[in-house]
Every structure is written in structure tokens, then in C-alpha cells.
Specification:
By secondary structure, the chain is mainly beta. It has eight helices and 105 strands.
């Protein structure tokens, strides 16, 4: 560490030598050592943590806290920098990187964050750092103004609200924590309201809507002690409905059950005291309940109270209905009453039979003398007696009849075999109506005999004995005269056979064996349910070749060696269960083991004989494989093992191991020492001591041979230097007869002692095939010994698992001892031991490696596992659907397996492939379950051997359904036209869709699309059956509300995320005349002068009809009670006029409106017209204006308003109306009248007289200052005065009597006199005819005149013919002509095509510049005396009728001149 220490050191180094002869000398040097700095100190904060408190209103940039740290390193490593690493929420703070000063960067808000925990990091110049925590606590400051949530600014309360009720609540708060706001009402509505600390404004005084205030403006002061907030709210006081409506008491009406719909059976009239006092709107009527499920039968007009029959009644369903209805005002107060509807019965029901289709089961042996058990269940709801009659039966053989009670009768006996079924139709009548019943008669069979087998009941069948279970044997068949179903069964139980109960097919139940039973006899019963017959079935079993077998799998025999040829050895025996022909003929043969062909076998009886004499010493035992084979094609065979032992005879001399034997002995061998033992072998057996022998020698040597043991001992001292080798001839003589002798020469070598161990030479590693035959040589083990001996003994010490190998002990040959299997063990490590032949043998070992090579002897086998797979349709190509695994016990190429698809049993080929190596099955094309849903294919696996081996399995693949198909509607759109009177619940149209998917994917549900306005509207009227797609009317239609309803029907399948289809459904609604005309308004407050000079239009009545087309075409007629009144209403326009001068001061007239529908409906409520009369001279005041008529009419509304304003200064509720207007040049004279108040505008004030203002009073109010100059100038007022008529016009045309020419008026006297005479005669005739006509007309009805619409012309109210808008001709009431005083005045707005209501002498005719279509002259018919008007150009005439002159006058069509 350099901190606080020197980092520069100065060293002085001194060196001294040490001479031997001189004084030492020294030298010195100065060394400067500079210690370089290393950053080995971490900065350290002066405090372990920091804490500070700041107010939330701290100014940005203001210092908060200073943190500091120190670092003991010097130089750049000790330079420190600071930064904030965490906790600086919203970047509110800043730290100076060099000084560590923390200051505020942005405003703080206690209400958002109350504290900050900053993590400050200090870092030195070398990169070492340390962190410290700075806790900053934000303190609250009152910096928020109270806030109130936005609720209703205006609150309505009822005028009868009780005190203490909470009217509203101010929800105010302060953003500062812990601050409580206070409330104070600064304007409390004169103490009417108060507020509590919770901000609840309550009512403290009672309200009075009528006498008190109806609105309060409240001001509340909301304060948090520092900031104040003013809140304004308004309270409106509502009127209260005090009186409920009053209805008449319960009533009872009788209605016939066949009464037509739209019949008004009762009219409810309610009164309500609130109507006047509270100025509420009219009452509404509603039906609440109808007893006996009659809700859909009756309807009440909510405005008029008419209770209307809307659906047909049925006395048989219910004889009465109790209608509970109520009247409700706008205040929702209601009163309830009832109407009992008693239904009057009429014979309107046809007989009914339940059921109307009957199935009868009648046995064929039914007694015809008694009625059958079957009768009709018929009844008549009207209770009328019924009559029955068989009107049709098929076949028509008159077997059936019916009695008066409706029971079926038999006229003849039945025969099931001749006829099994009858179709009968029976008519039931009550005398007026009829019904029909269909009876399906099934004749029941009666058993008349047992079944009869075909083929005389004997059946033969031949089957091979290899036929498997389920194999068809034969079929038995029987007939029955009763035509009943026959069943079959075995009489006894046969374990090998089964029979089908109904078809008679016989099948194998177990496999047959000819050798056990070659013929089966079966007894079969045929039954018709009660009787049976028996048939015999013979089943012959055909022989099939079966394998021959040996009686024993192994045989053991003996034979003397050297036995001559053909000597029998033994016999093997094979058995073949086949008894006949080549299948039972067998042959024997020796297949293997017959070494050197020593044996032969008789092919027919299996006797083994000597074919070549044997030699026990050569081969003592033979292992033969003998086969037995039948003579079939192909043949079948079996094998057995035959062991033949060769018996010994003394034909072999003893044999020494070698002709010359050699032995070495040490020259120091002591006398008596055994130097060797001579051994010999005799191939003969012990029989007769053939192999017992003794030793002897004739040689003279220092050795002795023991006669029995062959031991050679030293008998004399050996001297190697004298003789190092001796030859001893030794004899071995057996005890057989005759004896046999063997000779050996023993060479005795005199040498050192034997001290060498034999050694196996060479290495032994080989490979043999696993199918190597037994006894085959693998290899020969070789050994050597450095001693003078080469006789070794070999043995396998270990590694010979399951003794698959053996070794010849003296030759060292290793051979295969038993069958090998590489799959069990593939390599053997044989430890072979070799030893010498010394008394104390020495030995050594070596390992021989034998590897087993594979042969292709293992068949590939599929591993266990499911062979059934499934795959979703539409998966991508090469989708893996499963895997097959197989194994092969071989190895290498023999175990290399290859998979392939062998064949497609079911399904399109190449649909699937299999990976030839992995066995993975995968798709090879796009799958569609709707095209192919199941596949069955054969998969094979083959190994790589030669020849290759293989096996197969069958694989089933099911294609899983996916929801890949949308539902499909049968039609892309549906349309239907229905009447608006269609009953609810009616099925309108059926939409149908299908989906070719399976399961719930194909389960379709239907719904309406409600995402559009049209769908929502359709859903209001219709519903759809979710299962069947039926569009059903759920709510009554109204053509006037909706003429066409369109909807989109959605079909969804059953998937979680369903697929859909849509179709468009359009319903066209036709109109029925179900709406009565309605007047609007229903009350007309009018006035009329007593004497008319203006052809004044008193009122224009207006009615509407919600129907359309003809049903909405309206015409107006007087209420029948007022037909004789002095008023008339225009048939088409509703213009209401006076027919003649008036006499009374007030008239109240009712007018009806009728539509042109079918049936024709009349307004339920007549328009009421109030007419008050005035005298023009007393009540009319006139203005002369310097305006044209057209200009005036455009400003008339403003003009009348100004006049009313002037009069209302004295009479505030006055109203002013125009009576007449006269046009004179460029000026107009306007005649007005005024009524003092408007009380007459209310229908309930009919009893009050109408106060007309007199002319003099009005003129006083208008003159001189009532109408100011501005108004006068605006409307160019020239004069204001009382009523006056303008000067007469002189431009009325002259009416010529017949012709308009001057020449027609000058007639010579000679011509005039005859004419006058003829006219006199004509007048007399006319009087007679007129009298006769009048008398006849009194007795004959009036005739209507046909006239096309295109020929209709304008008619006056006096015209007897009125044509409705649709061309329906109607005869209105006969009206008179009113006397008119003064000239004709056109009334603006009078658009009625009528003639002037004046007498002929005041008829205004067109001027000379009138159009030709006007009737510009008039005249009188000299015969009838009737007047007419005529068009001078077209010569067309129209007759004028005068009821006051000719009350019997009838309409006469117009004629030309």
C-alpha cells in the first residue's frame, strides 16, 4: 500500500574486494527504487446509510442530501464518481457525479409516492465500486383543491317527497392524504334543504308543486380548510299523479263462436280527475289477464278502450272468458275492471275420431256372427249423434261392415292365405259435417299344418376333413301353408355343427376327422311356432392326407461285428392314421449315419439288415436317422433315431501304442527301479477275455518285463557309457480263442532324468458355421516335448459351454459334439491342456478360440404391439401415424430388416407408405374421411439373407374425422309471403342444412344473425328452432310497422369453434285491414257566419289510417245522427262547409272517417266539430291592405299575430281568425273576427258560450295606436274598419239560354208561332211525364251510375255522385243548396274540386279568357225544365240539381249538346 508511505526509495550499494597481498578496495553505486501504484483499495462511503425528509412541494433543483466516500489509492485510481443505480422512480432525483450532491429534478407528489430508496454507487478510477442506500421520506403538504365527482347536476323529485329524504349526495374528496372536506349550503332554497358532513342533501320542508316553487338552485361550499370549492346543483319539483282512473263496473257480453275477427265486443270508457287538474295526456287501456288461456283471442285499443276479437272463438274449448283489463294514466296510476265474454254455441265442429288411423289385428278364424273387438272412437264436440258408413274397402270383396256403434263387422269368413291385409275407409257424419277414418286390417294367421321340408326331408353334403369352423355345410328349407315364419334347430345336440334359426343354413362348429367318423347324420326340426317336422342331413367327411409318425422316436439294436450281408439287425415301425390309398401306403429309408453303408432297410416293413459286414474295432456304434414317408403328393414324413451297437469277437491282437517303444533312464537308476510300463490295447471287448493279455520277452537285457503289468524294471546295473541303448522285444498274448499276439520293441535310452514339460505349439483361432455337422473337425492341437517322448494327452479344461465340443485325448482333434446356435453363443474360448506320459506327468495349457458364424435361420418377427392406427384427415403429406417394429435372431446381413407395404386390402393404393428401415408408417397423399375412412393393408418385413426370410401383418388405419366441412344450406335464400294476421307459433319457412362430417361435427344448430339491425328486428318477430331450422313467428306482425323482414340464418356445427354457413331469409308481409281510421285532432273548434258570402271553409278534417293501399284510402261522411244538419263534409278532402245559412248560435257535429279496406272499417271515435255562429255586421272587422292577394297570403300568419298582439293587451287569451278575403285590383280586403279567450279549445268546455268580440270594441283597440306605424308600413295597411262588402263586379258573363249566336235570338214570327205551339204541347207532355217520374221514383231504388275514373270531373257538394280514390262509387247523403248573399269570393286554400254553393242566379261563370275546359254558359232543358252548364267549345253539358225544387231528383249522366 502506498497510501501514507514513500513510493520512492534510494539505495546505496557498496562492494569490497579481498586481495591476498594488498589492502581491500571498495566501490559504491546508488539505486533508485520507484514503487508503482496498484488499485487495491475499494472506495468506502463515510456513512453506512443515509436518511432525509423532504416536503412534496420542494422546488426542482433544490439540494436534498450530500453523500461522500473516500479511497486510499492515489492517483487516477483514487478519483471517485457517483451515480444513482436504482430506486429513482420517475427520475425525480439527480446526483452530481463528482461531489455526490443529490438534488430534486422534478416535482414530488406525496399522494403518488411517499418515499424513495435510492441506491447510490461510487466508483474509483480503477473500476472498484461500493453501494449505499439513501432513504428519502416525502412529507405531505396541502396542495390539492377538493374535487367532486361528476354526478347529476339536475335532480327531479316528486312534489309529495317527505322531509328527511336524501335528495342527492355530493361525493367530494381531497387528494391530500388525511384531509377531511366539509360541506356548507350557501343557498339552501330558503331553508328547504340541508347538507350533512357526509355531503347528503336532504329535504327539510314540505314541497308544494302547485303553490310553491318548482325549481331550486342550490350552492354548496366544499372546503378542506385551505381551499374552497363552490358546487351548483338544481332540484326540479315534479307534479304528482293524485287520482287514479275510474272504470265502469264489471260487464257481461255475449258473442257467437263464429263471430268474425275485428269485432268490437265492448268499449271501456274511463275518466280521470287528473286529466283537467294536472293537464295529463289521455288514458291508456291494457288487458292484464284473460281466463281459460284466452290471451291471444282479445285485443284492446290502448287509446279508445275498444275490446276487439282478434282470433276466432270456440265454444267447445271454452264457453266463457273473463277479461281483466285496466286503464292507466301517464302517472302510472291504474284501475282494473272486468268483462265476461259468454260464448254462444253454433254447430261448427266436424266429427272427430281419435285415432283417425287404426290398425286392427283380426285372426282368420274370427266368428262372423259377432262384432269384432275393434271399434271407432269418434265424437262430436257439438254433441250431435253420429252415423257410420263403410265407403271404401280394398280389396273390394264386401267382407267388412260397421254397426251403428262404430264396431267392425264381418260379412264373410277371413282367409289369411288368400288375403292378409285390408284397407278400409269409414265415413262418420253428424248430419252436416263428415270425417273419415282409415282402418288397416291385418289378418292374423291360424296354424293349419306343420312345415314341409323340400327334397323329401333328405339332404346330403360332402366336406373335406380339413374344413374349418364356420364352413358352410348345407341348407335345409321348409314351406308352411300358413305363410308363417319357420325356425330351424337340431333335434339333438351335435358338437360339430350349428344351424341358423331362420335361414336353415348349417355351418361347422368344430373341425371334422374322417378317421374318427366318416359320416355324420343330423336330424333337423322345422317349426312354425307350434308344429314341427324333421329332416335328415347326411354329412360325408372326405379324407385328407395326414402325416405318418414313428411308433418310437428312437430305437436301439445290436449286431455282431463281421455278421454276413442281409443279417437282420432290427425293425422300425411307422404309423399312418390314413387307412386308404396312397395316403396310407408308407416307405422307409436311411437318411444319415450309415457310415460306409454297412446297413440296409426294407422300404416296406422297416427291417434293418447288414449290407456290409461291420468291424467292432473300426466302429462300435452306429447312429442312424431313419425316415418314414407316405406316398401322397406331396408326401408327408417322419424321422427317428436308431442306435446300433456292434458286438465284439476276438479278431484283434493286442496292439502296443507303437511297434517300437523307447524309454530313457538315468544311468544312475537303481536296480529294481521301474523304468517304464509297457501298455497295449486290444480292440476286442472283455467278452471271453478277448482283451485280457500278458507280457513276456525273449530279449536278454538288464531289464525285466512284468507279465501282467508290463512294468519294466532294472534288474542289472545300467551303465550309460557301456550301452546307452537297449532294444527289448516284448510280446503281448491275449486269452482269447484262439489267442492273438502283439509285439513291441522297447528301446531304452540311457540318459539324464526327464525334466521337460510338453508345450502346445501354434495358435488356434478359427470360425465355423453354426450349422456345422456333428463330428466335424474344428482343428488339431499339436504339442512337443524336449524329452525323448512325443506321446501327449489332450483335454478341454474349460470354456466348453454346454459341451458343444470334444477333443480326442491322444490326437488332439477338436470336433463338434452337438448342434451349435450362434444366437445362443457366438464364440467359445476353449482352454486345452496337454500332458506328457510320464509317471508324474507335466502339462501345459493353451486357449483355442472358436467363433460361430451366422446362417440365415431366423424368420423376422414383428414385435408385439397394436396393429390399429388412426390419423386425422387433412394432415400434411408424410405425416407419421405409427411405427411397426420387428426383430431377427440372426446377425449381420441376415438380420438387416426391410419393411414394405405388400398390398392394400381396403382403401386406395399408395395412400400410405412405410419407411423400409425404421418401420414408420406415414401418409402419402391427402386424406379425406368423407371419401375414404378406413384402410386395411398388409405390411411385410424381410431380412437380408439368401434366401431371404419374411413375415407379414395386417394393419388397420382409421381416418379420424375433423371438422373440415362447413354446413351447407339446401337453398342459398328463402322467401315467403305471409299475412300480417298470421298467428304466432306458425312455422313460416324451414331452412335446412347438412354437414358431411361425423358425430357432433355434423350436429347442426340454427340461430339468427343478430349482428345487424335487420337481424335484431327479425329476432323481435321470429324465432328459429335450433334443431330443425324452422323459422317460427313468435310475435304478432304489423304490416304498418314492417312490410319486409330480412334475416340471416346461421347454421353451426357442433365443434367448439364451430364452422358456419348462412342463408338469407326474406319474409314479405301483406296488409290486412286491421287499423281503423283515426282523427288527429279529434276536436275542432270553429266558427261560421249566420249568412255566408265567402263560401267559407269552416274546417279541414284530417284522419289517418296505419294500413296501406286500399286499406288506407279514406273518405269522410257525416255521422248518421247528423246527416240532416246544415253542414256537409267533402267525401275525399274532409273539407267541412255549411250547406245553407245557419240559424243556431252553436252546433256540435260528429264526422266519421271510413277506409276502403275489406272489411271496411269506420273510425272508432268520430271527429267532433264545434261551430259557433257570428253575425258579420256585429263581429267582423275589415283591413284594406295595399297588397296583392298572393303577397298577403305569404304574410298572413305574421299579420294575424300582430292583430292578436294588439287585442291581447286587453284580452290575453284571445285568438283572431280570417273569415273572407276580397281582391280588388292591387289591394285586398281582409275580413277578420276575434274571440275573447281560448277556453273553447277544450272539448270539456262545450257548455261554455264562445265570446265573440264586437266590431266596435276591436276597432277601439286597433285605432289609432293599437296597430303601430311599423306594422302598418310592414303590411301596407290602408284602412281599418267594420265589415263591408266591396262594390259589385260587372264582369259576370251573360248566360245564353241555348246558343251564344245573335242569329239564334231572331226568329221570324212565322217560325215562332209553330214553335210556341209545339212548346205548349211539349210542356203538357212534360208535366205528365214529370208527375209519372216522381211517382215511380218513390217506389224504385236509386240507380248508381257507372263511370270510369278517367272520366271523372269535378263535382260540387250538391253533386249526387261521389267517387272514392279507388273508384268505388258511393251515394252520399242528399244535400240542399244554401242561399248565398253577395258576389262569389275565392277563398285561399280551398282546393276542393267542388262547384260554388250558390243558387244559379249567383253562379259565377268564367270570363271570356277562360280555358275551353270551363263550362262558360248555362241553359234549361225545355222538356224536363232542368238547368245545365255547357262548355261552348266541346258542347259537353253537366246537369245542376236543386233539392229544394225537386226532392226526388236523381243523378243523370252528362251529355253533349
Amino acid at each position: 500500500m502506498l497510501a501514507g508511505q514513500d513510493f520512492l526509495y534510494t539505495l546505496t550499494v557498496v562492494t569490497v574486494d579481498q586481495p591476498q597481498t594488498d589492502s581491500p578496495k571498495t566501490g559504491s553505486a546508488t539505486v533508485f527504487v520507484t514503487v508503482l501504484p496498484q488499485n487495491d483499495n475499494t472506495p468506502v462511503f463515510t456513512s453506512s446509510s443515509y436518511y432525509v425528509q423532504v416536503d412534496e412541494d420542494i422546488i426542482p433543483g433544490r439540494q436534498v442530501l450530500n453523500v461522500s466516500a473516500v479511497d486510499q489509492d492515489l492517483g487516477p485510481d483514487g478519483e471517485l464518481t457517483y451515480n444513482i443505480t436504482a430506486g429513482n422512480i420517475d427520475n425525480k432525483f439527480y446526483i452530481d457525479p463528482y461531489s455526490g450532491l443529490i438534488s430534486s429534478r422534478a416535482p414530488l407528489d406525496f399522494e403518488s409516492v411517499t418515499s424513495y430508496q435510492l441506491s447510490i454507487q461510487v466508483t474509483d478510477g480503477g473500476g472498484l465500486s461500493q453501494n449505499v442506500t439513501v432513504d428519502i421520506n416525502v412529507t405531505n403538504v396541502n396542495d390539492n383543491i377538493p374535487e367532486c365527482s361528476a354526478n347529476e347536476n339536475v335532480v327531479e323529485i316528486d312534489g309529495n317527497t317527505t322531509t328527511g329524504t336524501t335528495v342527492m349526495t355530493l361525493n367530494c374528496s381531497d387528494g391530500d392524504a388525511g384531509t377531511i372536506v366539509s360541506y356548507q349550503l350557501q343557498d339552501d332554497g330558503d331553508g328547504t334543504f340541508a347538507i350533512n358532513p357526509a355531503g347528503e342533501i336532504t329535504l327539510t320542508k314540505g314541497l308544494d308543486y302547485d303553490l310553491g316553487r318548482r325549481s331550486y338552485r342550490l350552492t354548496a361550499l366544499v372546503s378542506d380548510s385551505l381551499y374552497n370549492l363552490l358546487v351548483d346543483r338544481q332540484v326540479l319539483v315534479k307534479s304528482v299523479n293524485q287520482y287514479p282512473p275510474v272504470l265502469p263496473p264489471s260487464a257481461t257480453v255475449s258473442v257467437s263462436e263464429n263471430e268474425a275477427t275485428n269485432y268490437v265486443l265492448y268499449t271501456a270508457i274511463a275518466t280521470d280527475a287528473d286529466t283537467v287538474l294536472k293537464n295529463l295526456t289521455s288514458l291508456s287501456y291494457f288487458i292484464s289477464t284473460v281466463s281459460n288461456n284466452g290471451d291471444n283471442l282479445f285485443w284492446i285499443d290502448k287509446n279508445t278502450g275498444d275490446i276487439v276479437l282478434v282470433n276466432s272463438l270456440d265454444f267447445e274449448k271454452s264457453r266463457s272468458y273473463l277479461i281483466t283489463y285496466f286503464a292507466e294514466d301517464d302517472g302510472k296510476s291504474r284501475t282494473t275492471s272486468t268483462v265476461t265474454v259468454s260464448v254462444v254455441n253454433v254447430n261448427d265442429n266436424s266429427p272427430r275420431c281419435d285415432p283417425d288411423v287404426i290398425t286392427a289385428l283380426i285372426p282368420e278364424n274370427t266368428d262372423i256372427t259377432v262384432p269384432t273387438a275393434y271399434g271407432l272412437n269418434c265424437f262430436d264436440a257439438d254433441g250431435d249423434p253420429l252415423q257410420y258408413d263403410v265407403i271404401q274397402q280394398q280389396p273390394n270383396d264386401a267382407i267388412f261392415d260397421i254397426d251403428s256403434s262404430g264396431k267392425l263387422l264381418l260379412n264373410k269368413s277371413l282367409d289369411f292365405e288368400a288375403r292378409t291385409y285390408y284397407d278400409i275407409r269409414i265415413e262418420v257424419t253428424d248430419g252436416q259435417f263428415t270425417a273419415a277414418v282409415s282402418v288397416a286390417v291385418n289378418i292374423l294367421d291360424v296354424n293349419e299344418g306343420a312345415p314341409v321340408f323340400t327334397s323329401s326331408g333328405i339332404y346330403n353334403s360332402t366336406l373335406p376333413e380339413t374344413s374349418r369352423k364356420g364352413h358352410f355345410v348345407t341348407r335345409v328349407s321348409a314351406d308352411d301353408v300358413d305363410l308363417t315364419t319357420i325356425s330351424y334347430e337340431f333335434k339333438y345336440k351335435y358338437s360339430e355343427f350349428i344351424i341358423d334359426l331362420y335361414s336353415g343354413h348349417i355351418f361347422l362348429k368344430e373341425q371334422l376327422d374322417r378317421e374318427v367318423n366318416s359320416l355324420h347324420t343330423l336330424l333337423v326340426l322345422a317349426s312354425d311356432g307350434s308344429l314341427t317336422s324333421t329332416a335328415t342331413v347326411y354329412v360325408n367327411v372326405e379324407d385328407i392326407n395326414e402325416a405318418v409318425t414313428f411308433v418310437q422316436s428312437a430305437y436301439t439294436f445290436t449286431s455282431d461285428e463281421g455278421a454276413p450281408v442281409s443279417t437282420p439287425v432290427g425293425q422300425v415301425s411307422g404309423v399312418d392314421i390314413d387307412k386308404e390309398g396312397e395316403y396310407g401306403e408308407i416307405r422307409y429309408a436311411i437318411e444319415s449315419g450309415n457310415i460306409h453303408s454297412h446297413f440296409a432297410i426294407d422300404p416296406t416293413d422297416g427291417t434293418l439288415t447288414i449290407a456290409d459286414p461291420t468291424d467292432h474295432e473300426e466302429i462300435s456304434k452306429f447312429e442312424l436317422i431313419v425316415s418314414v414317408t407316405d406316398m401322397a403328393n406331396p408326401p408327408l414324413s417322419d424321422r427317428c433315431h436308431v442306435a446300433i451297437t456292434i458286438l465284439d469277437i476276438n479278431d484283434s491282437p493286442p496292439i502296443f501304442p507303437a511297434a517300437i517303444l523307447s524309454v530313457s533312464v538315468s544311468e544312475s537308476t537303481a536296480i529294481g527301479t521301474v523304468i517304464t510300463q509297457i501298455s497295449a490295447t486290444d480292440a476286442d471287448s472283455v467278452t471271453n477275455n478277448n482283451n485280457r493279455f500278458s507280457f513276456s520277452t525273449t530279449s536278454v537285457t538288464p531289464f525285466k518285463v512284468h507279465a501282467s503289468t508290463g512294468i519294466v524294471t532294472v534288474v542289472e546295473a545300467l551303465d550309460r557309457e557301456t550301452d546307452n541303448r537297449y532294444e527289448i522285444e516284448i510280446l503281448a498274448i491275449d486269452e482269447g480263442s484262439p489267442p492273438q499276439t502283439g509285439t513291441v520293441t522297447l528301446e531304452v535310452h540311457i540318459d539324464d532324468i526327464n525334466d521337460n514339460i510338453p508345450q502346445i505349439t501354434g495358435s488356434y483361432d478359427t470360425t465355423i458355421a453354426e450349422n456345422s455337422p456333428i463330428q466335424s473337425v474344428v482343428f488339431q492341437i499339436s504339442a512337443e516335448d524336449k524329452d525323448l517322448s512325443n506321446l501327449f494327452h489332450y483335454s478341454i479344461e474349460s470354456g466348453n459351454h454346454d459341451s458343444h465340443f470334444k477333443i480326442e485325448p491322444y490326437s488332439g482333434y477338436i470336433q463338434v459334439a452337438s448342434g451349435l446356435d450362434r444366437e445362443t453363443r457366438s464364440v467359445y474360448y476353449l482352454v486345452v491342456q496337454v500332458s506328457d506320459d510320464k509317471l508324474t506327468p507335466k502339462y501345459s495349457t493353451a486357449t483355442a478360440t472358436v467363433s460361430i458364424s451366422d446362417i440365415n435361420d431366423g424368420i423376422p418377427i414383428f414385435k408385439p404391439g397394436s396393429r390399429k392406427f388412426s390419423v386425422d384427415e387433412n394432415v400434411p403429406f408424410h405425416t407419421i401415424i405409427g411405427r411397426l417394429q420387428a426383430e431377427d435372431s440372426d446377425e449381420g446381413i441376415n438380420a438387416k430388416l426391410t419393411f414394405k407395404v405388400s398390398s392394400f386390402l381396403i382403401g386406395s393404393a399408395e395412400s400410405f407408405l412405410i419407411d423400409e428401415v425404421s418401420g414408420e408408417l406415414f401418409t402419402n397423399m391427402s386424406l379425406d374421411r368423407e371419401t375414404e375412412s378406413f384402410y386395411q393393408l398388409t405390411i411385410s418385413v424381410q431380412d437380408g439373407g439368401n434366401p431371404a426370410l419374411s413375415s407379414e401383418v395386417t394393419v388397420e388405419i382409421t381416418v379420424n374425422d375433423l371438422n373440415d366441412n362447413h354446413p351447407v344450406f339446401h337453398n342459398s335464400f328463402y322467401s315467403k309471403t305471409i299475412s300480417e294476421a298470421t298467428s304466432t307459433g306458425t312455422k313460416i319457412v324451414t331452412t335446412a342444412a347438412t354437414d358431411v362430417d361425423l358425430g357432433f361435427y355434423s350436429e347442426i344448430t340454427y340461430e339468427l344473425d343478430l349482428t345487424s339491425r335487420e337481424g335484431l328486428l327479425a329476432d323481435f318477430y321470429f324465432t328459429i328452432d335450433a334443431i330443425f331450422g324452422d323459422v317460427i313467428l313468435k310475435r304478432s306482425l304489423d304490416f304498418e310497422a314492417q312490410e319486409v323482414l330480412s334475416m340471416v340464418v346461421i347454421a353451426k356445427d357442433g365443434d367448439v369453434i364451430p364452422k358456419t354457413a348462412t342463408t338469407n331469409v326474406t319474409i314479405y308481409i301483406t296488409d290486412v285491414n286491421d287499423n281503423r281510421p283515426e282523427f288527429l285532432p279529434m276536436f275542432y273548434n270553429t266558427e261560421a257566419p249566420l249568412a255566408e258570402v265567402c263560401d267559407f271553409v269552416i274546417a279541414r278534417l284530417s284522419a289517418t289510417d296505419q294500413d296501406q293501399t286500399n286499406n288506407a284510402e279514406l273518405f269522410y261522411v257525416m255521422d248518421p245522427a247528423f246527416e240532416q244538419s246544415p253542414f256537409i263534409v267533402d267525401f275525399e278532402t274532409g273539407v267541412f262547409r255549411a250547406r245553407y245559412d245557419l240559424n243556431d248560435s252553436q252546433y256540435v257535429i260528429n264526422v266519421q272517417a271510413k277506409d276502403n279496406g275489406e272489411p271496411r272499417l269506420t273510425s272508432s271515435v268520430s271527429a267532433k266539430v264545434r261551430i259557433d255562429t257570428f253575425q258579420a255586421e256585429l263581429n267582423v272587422f275589415s283591413f284594406t291592405l295595399s297588397l296583392t292577394k298572393d303577397n298577403y297570403l305569404r304574410q298572413e300568419t305574421d299579420f294575424l299575430s300582430e292583430v292578436k298582439a294588439a287585442i291581447s293587451l286587453k284580452h290575453p287569451s284571445t285568438y283572431v281568425r280570417r273569415w273572407c278575403i276580397h281582391e280588388r285590383g292591387s289591394s285586398v280586403i281582409v275580413h277578420l273576427y276575434a274571440v275573447e279567450n281560448d277556453l273553447s279549445d277544450w272539448i270539456y268546455n262545450l257548455h261554455l258560450p264562445k265570446p265573440f268580440l264586437e266590431t266596435t270594441e276591436v276597432l277601439e283597440l286597433l285605432k289609432p295606436d293599437g296597430i303601430n306605424n311599423d306594422v302598418r308600413n310592414k303590411f301596407y295597411i290602408v284602412d281599418i274598419d267594420g265589415y263591408f262588402l266591396p262594390p259589385k263586379q260587372t264582369n259576370e258573363p251573360e248566360v245564353a239560354p241555348i246558343s251564344d249566336t245573335t242569329a239564334d235570338k231572331v226568329v221570324p214570327l212565322a217560325v215562332s208561332l209553330p214553335i210556341l205551339f209545339l212548346a205548349l204541347i211539349a210542356a203538357i207532355v212534360l208535366i205528365v211525364l214529370a208527375w209519372k217520374r216522381k211517382w215511380c221514383k218513390k217506389k224504385e231504388p236509386k240507380e248508381k251510375t257507372n263511370e270510369k275514373d278517367s272520366e271523372r270531373v269535378a263535382s260540387s257538394p250538391n253533386t249526387p255522385r261521389v267517387v272514392s280514390p279507388s273508384g268505388v262509387k258511393i251515394n252520399p247523403e242528399n244535400v240542399g243548396t244554401r242561399n248565398v248573399i253577395g258576389p262569389f269570393i275565392d277563398v285561399p286554400g280551398n282546393d276542393s274540386p267542388v262547384f260554388d254553393q250558390r243558387r244559379p242566379n249567383s253562379l259565377k261563370l268564367p270570363t271570356s279568357n277562360s280555358t275551353p275546359s270551363m263550362f262558360d254558359k248555362r241553359g234549361m232543358d225545355p222538356v224536363t225544365g232542368w238547368f245545365y252548364v255547357e262548355n261552348s267549345q266541346t258542347k259537353e253539358r253537366k246537369w245542376i240539381k236543386f233539392p229544394d225544387k225537386d226532392p226526388l231528383f236523381q243523378d243523370i249522366p252528362s251529355t253533349g249538346s
